[in-house]
């Protein structure tokens, strides 16, 4: 009989800066306690970057839009998908040393074992990033 996977954890947050902290807390609290020392800091940082980008670039606060997060384990990784209703596509850039922004996806690229950008079936965009359970060992 095949192993039955865990049901993904799903959240929706309003497109407000305070949602970044709430999202970090929700994701970290959902990670199994035994994995927090191994994945907690990096997962928290990925959550911060992706949620911040979704709020800044993928939503219109005045329209009451939401961002969505899904967290699930699969194939030796913990996966985080952050989705927004925006039509734009995030772009990995290489800002110069004097730039005050533009490093979020560089950080995601550095931390994640794998990541991608996918259009959503109805509208919007999802950024999906995975952290390997076999890191550092």
From TrEMBL:
Keyword Kinase among record annotations: yes
Protein's UniProt name: ATP-binding protein
InterPro entries found in the cross-reference section: Anti-sigma-factor_SerPK (IPR050267), HATPase_C_sf (IPR036890), HATPase_dom (IPR003594)
PANTHER family assigned: ANTI-SIGMA-F FACTOR RSBW (PTHR35526:SF3), ANTI-SIGMA-F FACTOR RSBW-RELATED (PTHR35526)
Every Histidine kinase/HSP90-like ATPase domain range: 13-125
GO molecular-function terms, A-Z: ATP binding; protein serine/threonine kinase activity
Keywords for this protein: ATP-binding, Kinase, Nucleotide-binding, Serine/threonine-protein kinase, Transferase
Keyword Repressor among UniProt keywords: no
Organism in which the protein naturally occurs: Streptomyces carminius
Pfam families assigned to the protein according to its UniProt record, in alphabetical order: HATPase_c_2 (PF13581)
Entry-linked Gene3D superfamilies: Histidine kinase-like ATPase, C-terminal domain (3.30.565.10)
């Amino acid at each position: 009989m095949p192993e039955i996977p865990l049901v993904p954890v799903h959240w929706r947050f309003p497109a407000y800066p305070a949602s970044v902290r709430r999202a970090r807390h929700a994701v970290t609290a959902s990670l199994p306690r035994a994995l927090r020392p191994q994945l907690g800091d990096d997962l928290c940082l990925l959550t911060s970057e992706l949620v911040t980008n979704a709020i800044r670039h993928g939503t219109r606060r005045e329209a009451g839009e939401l961002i969505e997060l899904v967290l699930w384990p699969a194939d030796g990784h913990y996966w985080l998908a952050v989705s927004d209703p925006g039509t734009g596509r995030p772009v990995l850039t290489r800002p110069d040393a004097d730039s005050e922004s533009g490093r979020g996806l560089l950080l995601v690229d550095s931390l994640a074992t794998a990541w991608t950008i996918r259009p959503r079936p109805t509208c919007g965009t999802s950024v999906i990033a995975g952290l390997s359970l076999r890191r550092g060992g």
